[in-house]
TrEMBL record:
Chief location: membrane
Region of interest called Disordered, as start-end residue ranges on this chain: 1-27
Keywords on record: Golgi apparatus, Membrane
Family: Belongs to the GASK family.
GO cellular component, one term: Golgi apparatus
Presence of keyword Electron transport: no
InterPro entries xref list: FAM198
Protein location: Endomembrane system; Golgi apparatus
Name listed for the protein in its UniProt record: Golgi associated kinase 1B
Domain of life: Eukaryota
Amino acid sequence: MLKRLDTSGQETWPRLGSGLGGGSRVREGESWLSREDIGRMRQLADSAVADLQPAWSRSGARLLVLEGIARPSVPACGPSPCGLLKQPLDMSEVFAFHLDRILGLNRTLPSVSRKSEFIQDGRPRPVILWDSSLSPTSNETHSSVKLTWGTYQQLLKQKCWQNGRVPKPEWGCTEIHHHEWSKMALFDFLLQIYNRLDTNCCGFRPRKEDACVQSGQKPKCDNQDSVALAHIVQRKQDPRHLVFIDNKGFFDRSEDNLNFKLLEGIKEFPESAVSVLKSQHLRQKLLQSLFLDKVYWESQGGRQGIEKLIDVVEQRAKILLTYINAHGAKVLPMNE
């Protein structure tokens, strides 16, 4: 049985395995993590590595082929577990996974931190579950659906598939359900993820380290309608729903430089997530959840470091709730 972090800040939970804490069952308190989530996290954290393969990625990510494969020389990332090993700078992917589950969105892939024996510097890196059921993506935008900002804004007005309504062909709808965009916008705002909806960094003042500055895209803000969205991905067997990939968040973006462009055109927000943001329990849930990942917890400086990250997200949650009220946005159940 897992114990809580006690009020004095003592870390009192037993940790099993090298990477993940927790007992054989997850308490009711971590009910936002499914049994399958926990199983996948344990595999990613603790399974022996059978092989390391290059993966198509601008960031230099590599594919960890985990034990249980008959021929490790051939990546068989389907029934056997594989993980995408990313860079140390991408550690916010782990926080994003836990936040996603706590908010009840369930759109990210299981992610853990791991120190890999294949990496000489010994720094912990995020490992994200490799999911072979994702639809093929274009190399240019890493999306399974091609959308520009202009067509995306039109889709929001049409409310595609809402209330079971079949869209007319002239509406230009994709198979993606209208509510998915609300979930993505809320999630991306809290973590200030810009690489899906604002690839050119037009909604905030970027720094020289931001990808849009590195690739020289920043000046292209005058003709937004033609800018392609990126990382818009579905599963082959479930095209109605999005899968949030590449969830690199930014905790150091100041309050006077938040990207409100991410919320543009969004008139409704998911009730489950908004209720968590209003509940005063977000901090405790994040502490409980992140403590399961021992490597991540320690890499962020223990409880003190994690609390600082939560401070940032809590403050953005307050700003988002104020925004929802000020704009008269609706808060709706989104469990179609």
